[in-house]
Amino acid sequence: MSEVRISxxxxxxxxxxxxxxxxxxxxxxxxxxxxxxxxxxxxxPALEFAAALRRGGMNQLFSIEVTDGTKELALPKALQRDPxxxxxxxxDLLLVRKGELVTxxxxxxxxxxxxxxxxxxxxxxxxxxxxxxTALPEAIEYSIEGLAIGESVTAADVTxxxxxxxxxxxxxxxxxxxxxxxxxxxxxxxxxxxxxEAAEGDEESPEAAESAAE
Length: 214
Description:
Elements: E1 4-10, H1 15-24, E2 27-34, E3 37-45, H2 46-56, E4 62-66, E5 71-81, E6 88-96, E7 101-111, E8 118-122, E9 126-132, E10 140-143, E11 152-154, E12 165-166, E13 173-179, H3 183-202, H4 206-213
Parallel strand pairs: 1-4, 2-6, 7-10
Antiparallel strand pairs: 1-3, 2-3, 4-5, 5-6, 7-9, 8-13, 9-12, 11-13
């Protein structure tokens, strides 16, 4: 994954008030930390950072050029989002160096068609790996073409690029193809659910019974 160059400004205002003013200016409060250095508080351009994150996810490498003249390589480690607007309120960035090994979660994309009549049940869509911080894969594709009903894909089945080492348990199940329910089974489940709802509706609560008795 190629690095994204992004500008940053030193941040001198702290606390909730300072953070709000930073966000109103179209920037994201952020902290750069790692390698035993004193944490550096900066402000990142919100739209540019969010767009890069949508493309590359949490494994996106950033080359951050601070207006005080310093340049840093960093990976996102933690995000705080506004629960209503879904905008990024704050980000922690981990300083990295070329050749440095880091442990990250890597997305596994399953492609292809499994056996007809089966239903693909996903158990995990990421695996923990260790790789060079400046050469992290964006994602790994694994083909499930022809995967039979009853068969599973595990971490051990996935081939990783050179320099990327699996940290997750090799027996971790990513997905399993199960027998898809028949139309009759689906209708039976719907009928059972309707009967249960009807029975619950007929049951009178103790409070309602006491009220009727009064």
